[in-house]
Amino acid sequence: MWYTIGLASVTVCNGCLQKMSDRTLTAEIATKFINSPDDVDLRGFQSIDEDAAAVLATEDLRKHRDQKNFNDGISLNGLTSLTKRAAKELAKYKGNLYLNGLTTLPDEIAQVLAKHKGSSLDLDGLTTLSQEAARALAQSGQHISLNGLTDLSDELAKIWSQHTGALSLNGLATLSDTAAKALAKHQGHCLSLDGVKALSDSLAMVLGQHERSLSLNGLTTLSEAAAVALSRYEEWGWNLYLNGLITLSDGAAAALAQSAKHLHLNGLMTLSDAAAEALAKYEGLGLSLNGLTTLSAKAAKILLGNHSCSTGLNLEEIAES
Description:
By secondary structure, this protein is of the alpha/beta class.
């Protein structure tokens, strides 16, 4: 049986110690993982040979969804390097692929991974990305996660505007006006910018032009003008994630109530009666207020009138108190 003892020590195989100086994932170990995922943690390996990649890529791992070392995909977050041949094999895998240990991505490897047949590719260990690598990945329709990037040039933003999959850039704390305008044209179904902690009214005006789902969970406050800007898009079926908000003014609540997007406000723990009354007029796809812990009887009664609203509270009981 195989056990990983930490990420930097040894692997035990039937009582024999195998030194992990290079910590290479082999086809034998990959086969062990497929047969018994709970006994092998793939995250402990720094490199992978082509045969191991081929074994993992061709196996349907969905049967292992309930196993502790399986998270709806292959987690190879310990890999610090990847050969082109190994990348070609992994690109055949039809599940989510987690490669968050890579800190550099050569253009030729990016071109290969862009052909990944799965729905998500996580590369959160990258802190820089060349324009050629970005251009290759942006041609992919899969969800691309690049949460390690803390800076995005205007040129890269323009490249990502053509991407048709979900895009996570949660490491960005700020955006230039030009970059924001480019990302607002992003073609994918969701743009995640959870690292943005403050949103100026002008930046909100730009991002409010994004036509699909937008995640700004890093915001803790939102001005009324910014709320108006983010609520302008009128097509149903998309989401606006503002789960970091801990306060919401009555004016901002009234503005958000005009949005057609599904509103996610799960960070709010309470609402004023006026804010509740404003949100009760929301006619969009859904209103999520699952973080509420206290609410007046009047506010609860008001929210009961909106059938698209979900909370973590028993509104009927509060309304009758």
